[in-house]
Design goal:
76 residues, 1 helix, three-stranded antiparallel β-sheet, mainly beta
């Protein structure tokens, strides 16, 4: 199993970004920039918070999301 950091790096490296949004982790409050990505293979994906290591989002299909940490809570 890969680390959350490696997972996020792979998600960014594979991404062709088409739009940006913002997302906040429900558990710890870390804020992420989110880019919609287009992937060729249909698969299941998840986004893991690199601050608290919780799954923030899950989806399947050929359109995904690339999460980039923007800010983390002061208590982290």
């Amino acid at each position: 199993m890969s680390s959350p950091q490696a997972h996020g790096r792979v998600m960014r490296d594979q991404a062709r970004q088409s739009s940006i949004d913002e997302f906040q982790c429900a558990r710890c409050g870390a804020v992420y920039d989110v880019a919609i990505t287009h992937r060729a293979p249909r698969a299941e994906y998840d986004a893991i918070c690199i601050v608290c290591c919780e799954v923030m989002n899950e989806w399947h299909g050929t359109v995904g999301r690339a999460y980039t940490l923007k800010s983390q809570p002061a208590h982290a």
